[in-house]
Structures are given as structure tokens and as C-alpha cells.
């Protein structure tokens, strides 16, 4: 096999794969549709890359670093709309899906918990759930453990093993402590932790890829609190660029082509091997890169879209889609939000945005109370304590009911930046065949390629979890000393469509049976010998944990298999 690869996408999966392949002596071309916002990329050590995208809310609201909803639209609909013949109910931008070199990791919150052992065997351990395609992973925790270790060292994860609950360590055992100690606990998170402990929960420092001390040429976090949804202006956060892509490019073996809109993986006549990757530049000019190995890492939406757009005579329904599984089992993380109110300022932005985690609601939960909610068992997720909203967002929220002027100033004194401490529960999202990505028959992007159409509705499992677990979150917040009230917003109950899109998975699930999966455990498409999927598209299920650490670890595992020839 030629030691060359084309990687489509430069986010968490693509950058990690390029880094590992370069370490193994491969030459890699990375194709990215977005712009490079780090002017020093590939030229400077990690700590001095600079950035054009920091904690700037105005740039954020202008879609800086995100796809333009007019030029690169997504379309969406619910399952009910799809069944009644509605082609789409919305068109435009979609959530927090980044389009820049580094992908969504440019503005992720750097939360890096490990998945648990139980997350890889949901079907075997607990059985099926009607209406969901529950499946076991073809790999287990032990297969990812050495890659978890590697990624934590490379990106720089802070944490405290000694403070982790016994069950957490049993389900996600660690051979060594974290590379760095945790940042100090934010004041808002510390207040909520008091209430959580009073109801029997065990908060502990959140594992996060944020420097708590200078490391690898990057400074320690300055606790600006503007983590979620924004770039880090000082590169204290271990994103895909500073941790993987920059060191990979500095080997001289990796090149990145930005503003490359990939629209086809071309195959040999019999369809068994890819021979080239085709892309267009912003002017529409067509380019082809010969490909001996192709790694797809463009996110679950865009990986599925590319596979479907690559249909040819040998693959009439899309590349690797003989099973009709490409695009199916699209999963999002829904969130339940809770907040407690205080008669004094809690300074939610004077710390790393999230500093504590609670695992008590991960589950699984069984029994008559769960059965009454319409599911045989319920799997929850982690609670994240301490997030505060950005200032302009808070000002807009206050203006909605207070207007502007003196009333607005008064509202801001008691608003999100004063007396509100928040938390969120990450929900496991069960795979459903009808939650899917396909090609919109009518809507195209600015180059004439069909837009990705997302059909999605939460399963009753997610709705049951919002009911059952949301009540426990509310009780913990109500128990917080000095709190004057609390609320809970269970989004899976409020909105039957897409409610949050920062985390996504599925659409090209891995498995050993070609009839029910798209790729093998190695990431290789069942139907094409030299095309691999390395992003979260491969996840058969989507546990209630932030996925970036697992995405990076699994991508490196897949890349190593490609490099050493064991990927079959």
C-alpha cells in the first residue's frame, strides 16, 4: 500500500488521524471547506499560532467560523413531517457546526470525559428498546483505553483521579493520573455542588482539555469564562489545531488545503477501491487528488452527505450504502438545563466555564417507575456545573422582557451575569433508523450540490429521561443553600425536533455485519477497500458524555490500523 492518504475534514477526527499517519511516516493531504483562522498554523510552535477567532461575541453572531446558511444550507424536518410528505420545514444554518480549519474543536468547551465500559454493550447488557436500533459497539473500552491515555497527554487534560467517584473509576479505569491538576472550582459551580451533595450526589473536577498550568508552549487558562462556543484567544485550550494538526504539519508530511468543497470520492470501475477525491474551490473550479487511501472525517452530517453524493454505477445508492444504512441512526445530544437563583452575584464567568461534573444520573435506571414512563430501562448522562452565558446573549435575554434603558440596567444587575448559576445534563440519544441524513431533492449549496437534509425527532427514551432526571436536577438546585428558587428546562419535552446540535453521531455506524452497518471496526467501508470513516459517524450508540475525547481516540486507533496494515 502506498503510504499516502487524503483526509476529508480537519476537525477532531481529521486532525488526529493526520497526526497519527504523519507519525507513522505517511504523507497526508487534508481537505477542509472552511478557512484557516490560525495564521501561524504549520509555521510556529503550538503556543504562538495566533487566532482570528477568540471570545468575540460579535464575530460569533456574524457566523464567523461557521457555514453561511445561505451559501451552504442545511434543511431539517421532524419524523412526523417526513411521514406526511413534508420535504423540509426549515432551511439555513444549523447549530454550532464549525466550518474552519480545526472544525468544531475551535469553539468546543474542551470537556473530555471518557465513555464508560457499559456504553459499548448497551444491547447485550440491557436489551432492545422499541423504535430504536440499539446495538453493541464492535470494540470495547479496553480497545480505546491506550488511545484515551495518548490523547489526554497530547491535548493536555486536567483532572483529579483521587476525587473521582468509585463507580466512575470502575467504569472508566485509568492507568495514570491526569497530565495536569484541575483549575480552581468556579464560584457558581461550587454553590451548585453544595446542593448536589445535600441530595447525595458526588461532584468532582471536570476532565477538560484546558491548561491549568503552562504546557507545550501554551499558557495556563486565564479563567475568562468564555469557553463554550468561542475560540480561545490565548490557545490555553487543547483543540485539534494546537494539539494535532500543527505538530503534524511541522513534520513536513501534512498539507492542508482550505476552502476545498469535496463533492465526490471516485472509485475504480468495479467500485472496490477509491482512486481520487474530487473537490471544488470557491470559484467552482474542479480539482482531483489521486487517493490510495481516503479517510472521511467531515462530521456525521457531511460524511453521510459525501457518501451519498458519491453514488456511481457500482454504488448506485451511495458509496458504502449497499445496506441502506448510510445516513441512518443520526444522533444528537439533547440537553436538560437547570438553574438556581441567588440574591447576590455568583460571578459565573469568572472561571473556566465548566469546572465540576456529576455522574449520579448516568444510570442505567430500571424498575416500575421507569416502566411507567414507557421504556424498559433508562440511560442518562453527566451533569455539568458552572456554565454562564456570554454578556451580549444575556443582554438580549434581559431586553426581551425589560426593554432597554434604566429597566434593562436594573435587569442586568440580577440577570445571568449576577444571580444565576446554571448546569446542564447531557442526554444519551438512542439511534433510530428514521432519524437520518439524506440529500435534499430541491435545495442546493452555492456550488449546485444537494444540501444535507436532516430528519430528526427525539425517541420517547429521551423524553422519559428529561422527565425523570430533570426532576432530580431540580431537587439538587432547590437544595442549594441561599438559593431563592430554581427552574429546569427539559428540551426533549419542549421541542420535538432538533434542539441542540453541538454533538452529533451515527450515520455510518461500525459493526461486523455488512447488512446492518456501514463500516467495520477498523473504520473501513464494507464495500470499498481503501475508504475509512474516522469521525463520530461510526458510533453505534451515543452515550450521555461529551464525545470529543472518544472521537480523537477512535480516530487515532483507526489511523494506526491503516498505517500498520491491520485495518481490514
What count of structural domains? 2
What best-fitting shape do the alpha-carbon axes yield?
Answer: globular
Q: Name the structural class.
A: alpha/beta
Number of strands: 20
CATH uppermost class of the largest domain: Alpha Beta
The CATH architecture term of the largest domain is 3-Layer(bba) Sandwich
Q: How many DSSP H or I helices?
A: 15
Whole-number mean pLDDT: 92
Which regions are unreliable across 5 or more consecutive residues at pLDDT < 50? none
Radius of gyration: 23 Å
- Strand neighbour order, sheet with most strands: 5-13-14-15-12-18
Provide a descriptive summary of the structure in words.
The protein is an alpha/beta fold. It folds into two domains: 1-108 and 136-155 and 229-331 and 434-452 and 505-568, FAD/NAD(P)-binding domain (3-Layer(bba) Sandwich), CATH 3.50.50; 160-205 and 335-426 and 457-497, no CATH class. The chain is 25% helix and 16% strand. The chain has 15 helices and 20 strands. It has helices spanning 12-23, 57-61, 79-83, 122-126, 141-155, 166-171, 187-198, 240-249, 300-309, 368-371, 391-402, 406-413, 460-478, 491-494, 548-564; strands spanning 4-8, 27-31, 74-77, 90-92, 204-205, 254-257, 261-267, 274-280, 286-290, 294-296, 331-332, 335-341, 356-358, 383-385, 420-426, 436-444, 450-455, 485-490, 504-505, 531-533. The chain has a six-stranded antiparallel beta sheet with strand order 5-13-14-15-12-18. A hairpin with a 6-residue loop joins strand 7 (261-267) and strand 8 (274-280). Helix 1 (12-23) runs parallel beside helix 8, helix 5 (141-155) crosses helix 15 and helix 11 (391-402) packs across helix 12. The longest helix has 19 residues, at 460-478. It is globular, with a radius of gyration of 23 Å. The model has no long low-confidence stretch (mean pLDDT 92).
